[in-house]
Amino acid sequence: MIDKLINSYRNEGARATLRKICHKLKHTRQASGATPSKIDMSSIPIMPQLEDLMKADYIHHPYMRPEKLDKKLLNIAWVTPPVGPGGGGHTTISRFVRYLQSQGHRLTFYIYRNNTIPQSAKEAQDIFERSYNLNVPVKELEDFQDEDVVFATSWETAYAVFNLTGNHLHKFYFVQDFEPIFYGVGSRYKLAEATYKFGFYGITAGAWLPDKLKEYGMEADYFDFGADIDVYRPRTPILKKKKISFYARAHTERRGFELGVMALKIFKEKHPEYEIEFFGQDMSNYDIPFEFTDRGILNKQELADIYHESVACLVLSLTNVSLLPLELLVAGCVPVMNTGDNNTKVLGENEDIVYAEAYPVDLAAKLCEVVERQDINEHAEKMNQKYKGTSWEASYKKVEEIILREVTHG
């Protein structure tokens, strides 16, 4: 049992593991006929600490931005929930932390203990070093001090950041998705939504989110996505296999897993000669209605190998767009995606991305169109040439410029 939980945490992260624990406990109680005990508020996934919720009174005691600072190098803190290896959100945060550190700023992570799996600062630091190649101090939030700038990095950490005190502390919100819709319309939806009214300055992943945040009166600027060119650039000459891939994240609702599986079943019936590879999580416990290869959690080089061999990749994003499409374009693999302004506002009406309705029949039809092209290898080469300059450098610089513009004089 313990081994399974550790495996789940490594492959699927804290949120999915906690859901499994709650599900298991619920069914164990039902099977034993035990009388249900009273529900502990701290056991409801995912929530900030109750005292932080009660203390964060943005209505009667709003956060007021402090005066700008007369300095060029800043002490910048990031408040993060428990960290797991290979998480997309922490991967993006780590990119900017590494860049800001290289520019001479002092960076520190602070761990916020929401009610997911507990994690010490030492455990988090080990993961940052091992999985994200970061040499940055990680501290307990109780030890917070001497910072000029602090970033909330998720809705539950926003409550902790709101409650931090300091006459000259500038508070930012690093927004990578519209988190209220991670939940049904209920308490967590409303609590997540409220954080956009806290008065923090937002820096968002892509151009879709600032418009969403503006509805709550939140000021925000955004950075564009990039790709690691050196990793994903394909070998030449490009020779595609009869293979397509699927970014399969069954435990992440916004990745449309069920839609993807249904679409791929239709595709497989029309093109049985094509191999289908799943990646993104361990699929060994799932009963998939067609033959496929389960690749699980992969490192960047392993991902690049799949992209280079695949003609297309089905990657669904029902909230903010995934990081994958630009990586796929650099690698010469056609992204097949659901249409919607959450994707097109970030990536544009890109002729190299194949958009479909978020409906199995249309997704399957678009996959068929891609593999039925007569110029598959030539088209992959053209994509690679077009996107070989798509790096993260401009975004790194823009984020530093936003921070300095909002925090310092001159």
TrEMBL record:
Assigned keywords, A-Z: Transferase
Coiled coil: none
Boundaries of every WsaF C-terminal domain copy: 242-367
Record keyword Transferase present: yes
Molecular functions (GO terms): polysaccharide binding; transferase activity
Keyword Transferase included in the entry's annotation: yes
Annotated SUPFAM superfamilies: UDP-Glycosyltransferase/glycogen phosphorylase
Pfam families according to UniProt: WsaF_C, WsaF_N
Domain called WsaF N-terminal: residue spans: 144-198
Protein name per its UniProtKB record: Glycosyltransferase
Organism: Streptococcus cuniculi
Lineage: Bacteria, Bacillati, Bacillota, Bacilli, Lactobacillales
